[in-house]
Q: What sequence folds into this?
């Protein structure tokens, strides 16, 4: 039997991700470019994912786009919202998943999933981008630390510092004020993570949190946020090394499903 | 158009609203007093006394729909009104202060009629109007209904204010109260309300003979002219047209009707097209709206009239609110609900999270919320809205597939 190749493209607000699946099961290539919609990011991610597995666009049986910029690629076979794609990927990676928390570049969402892996309910952040990846980017910049170091720093915290503002701009002032008062950076970072966790857990509680809880999206790579969320929700949160690729993986899985139909 | 060709009801209804505003301009020209009224002030009083009245909420909606909302809101903010205040209030206060709006001009007021059954922001808004122009404010205070039933004490409280409003308006108009005319006006009002509710009821047909968004457009008539016989006639003709549509399978919704939803809240007037776009693309018809039938006041006597004016979306308890909505969802066979979290209407949006929870539990349909504003375009993000509508569509598809699967088992 001939192999079926499907591609999922997740055009996010800050990054572009692609995945190619073989026969709806095996990930044979993935790519990530830290530039999102409106940039050359999507094209570079697509080029890279094809190059890595030595296939061409024409070899793809079905291509599905998702994410904030999903409508910006006009040659794909279909588009779907990132909500369904994240749900699909979470169920593929963790079959017992019932709740997915996804924190992306500029939005945060919580998905409820049925036993059959069906998306049954969801809640998303309001117009404010507090509690999203962009919020963490801004905070890392003020603290003059690398975004990837936030996790290690927050683990060193010994003192509770509250960053109470939900507004990114005011939170920035609070952080500056803490720095002026000689607070330890690690404690401030922990405070920032708790602030994100507080906001996102409010969303999660609105849709109802049921085990297993899975976190996806770029922010899931930051164990500091994951830990703060676990503390806030009182639940174990599962993450996958593919967390940042969840949207693209879900899109590739849907692409396979649509092709088989 | 030839003489034999019938004027569509839609056109006639639009003319009814135009006439309301023309009457006000004419009255002003004759030196007669002109009033501004909140949309749910008992319109029967001014109509009986022959007073010309304009409607700031209707004006604000029209200005917003014609993309003048932001300009007016910013002017009000420069006057010192916070951007957290209702967008309708900001637009109208800016206009009252003399900031022009070519989108929907109306004569400045000589008196204002305020009934806070709509919301309590209305009270402060109208106090400001009265102060800006140094004119009388006739107030009817309707307390929040924290019980399902309206008590006799509430009826008496509102009746007392109703009678007092008549006295004040007799003085302003220089006309004496005519009970016979009042009866006729009430008869017109009831006839309009019944015809309007009949129009709304056609959404129950599958496929629906019209798009629920049409109701938002027709609402101007029920807000501004419900006591006029022309409004009643216009809605009766519209109901007949819809009856014909049902029989002939026609609809003003020219797209697929894959899904039917309830749209909760006031629409984002500045972004009507953006609201509509993903819905039509996905074949999602709005067959239930809470805002429209809420203006169908039907009553048989004075006590019932007082009770009718007690019930508005923001003046009833959660239980009544849920019952209304779940009733129209069932009647109009919806398979999803889209909730507008309206930055301009905090009382309405404030109890929606609990309502969402109840809708899900009681109706078993997906419910999705989005952030927006009835008048201020700065509070709406099209991309965010599209994602939420697509999410709702995908969940409704899943629900249908599951239902279909079960049906086939």
A:
């Amino acid at each position: 039997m001939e192999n079926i190749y499907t591609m999922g493209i997740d055009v996010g607000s800050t990054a572009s991700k692609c995945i190619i699946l073989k026969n709806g099961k095996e990930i044979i290539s993935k790519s990530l470019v830290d530039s999102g919609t409106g940039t050359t990011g999507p094209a570079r991610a697509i080029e890279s994912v094809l190059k890595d597995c030595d296939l061409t666009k024409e070899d793809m049986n079905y291509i599905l786009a998702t994410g904030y910029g999903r409508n910006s690629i006009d040659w794909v076979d279909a588009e779907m919202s990132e909500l369904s794609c994240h749900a699909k990927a979470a169920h593929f990676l963790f079959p017992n998943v019932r709740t997915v928390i996804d924190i992306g570049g500029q939005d945060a969402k919580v998905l409820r999933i049925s036993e059959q892996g069906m998306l049954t309910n969801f809640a998303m952040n309001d117009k404010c981008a507090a509690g999203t990846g962009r919020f963490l980017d801004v905070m890392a910049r003020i603290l003059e630390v690398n975004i990837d170091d936030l996790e290690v720093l927050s683990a060193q915290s010994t003192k509770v510092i509250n960053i109470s503002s939900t507004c990114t701009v005011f939170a920035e002032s609070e952080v500056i004020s803490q720095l002026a008062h000689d607070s330890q950076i690690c404690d401030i970072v922990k405070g920032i993570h708790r602030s994100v966790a507080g906001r996102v857990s409010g969303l999660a509680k609105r849709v109802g949190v049921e085990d297993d809880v899975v976190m996806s999206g770029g922010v899931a790579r930051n164990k500091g946020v994951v830990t703060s969320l676990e503390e806030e929700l009182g639940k174990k949160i599962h993450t996958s090394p593919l967390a940042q690729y969840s949207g693209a993986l879900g899109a590739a899985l849907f692409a396979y499903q649509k092709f088989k139909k | 158009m030839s003489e034999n060709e019938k004027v569509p009801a839609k056109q006639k209804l639009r003319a009814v609203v135009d006439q309301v505003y023309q009457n006000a301009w004419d009255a002003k020209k004759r030196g007669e007093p002109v009033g501004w009224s909140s949309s749910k002030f008992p319109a029967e009083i001014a109509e009986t006394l022959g007073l010309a009245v304009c409607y700031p909420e209707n004006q604000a909606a029209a200005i917003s729909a014609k993309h003048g909302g932001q300009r007016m809101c910013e002017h009000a903010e420069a006057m010192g009104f916070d951007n957290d205040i209702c967008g309708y209030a900001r637009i109208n206060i800016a206009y009252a202060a003399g900031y022009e709006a070519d989108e929907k001009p109306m004569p400045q007021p000589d008196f204002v009629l305020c009934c806070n059954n709509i919301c309590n922001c209305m009270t402060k808004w109208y106090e400001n109007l009265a102060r800006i122009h140094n004119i009388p404010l006739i107030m009817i205070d309707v307390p929040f209904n924290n019980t399902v039933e309206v008590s006799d004490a509430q009826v008496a409280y509102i009746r007392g204010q109703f009678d007092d409003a008549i006295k004040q308006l007799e003085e302003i108009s220089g006309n004496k109260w005519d009970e016979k005319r009042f009866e006729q006006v009430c008869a017109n009002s009831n006839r309009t309300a019944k015809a309007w509710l009949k129009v709304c009821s056609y959404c129950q047909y599958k496929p629906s003979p019209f798009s629920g968004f049409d109701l938002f457009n027709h609402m101007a008539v029920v807000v501004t002219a419900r006591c006029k016989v022309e409004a009643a006639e216009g809605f009766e003709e519209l109901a007949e047209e819809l009856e014909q549509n049902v029989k002939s399978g026609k609809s003003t919704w020219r797209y697929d009707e894959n899904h039917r939803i309830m749209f909760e809240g006031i629409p984002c007037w500045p972004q009507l097209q953006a609201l509509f776009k993903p819905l039509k693309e996905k074949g999602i018809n709005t067959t239930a709206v809470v805002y429209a039938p809420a203006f169908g006041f039907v009553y048989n006597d004075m006590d019932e009239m007082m009770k009718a004016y007690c019930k508005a979306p923001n003046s009833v308890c959660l239980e009544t609110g849920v019952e209304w909505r779940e009733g129209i969802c069932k009647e109009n066979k919806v398979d999803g609900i889209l909730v507008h979290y309206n930055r301009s209407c905090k009382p309405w949006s404030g109890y929606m999270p609990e309502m969402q929870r109840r809708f899900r539990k009681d109706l078993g349909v997906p419910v999705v919320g989005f952030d927006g504003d009835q008048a201020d375009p700065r509070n709406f993000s099209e991309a965010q809205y599209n994602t939420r509508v697509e999410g709702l569509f995908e969940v409704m598809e899943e629900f249908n597939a599951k239902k279909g699967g079960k049906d086939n088992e």
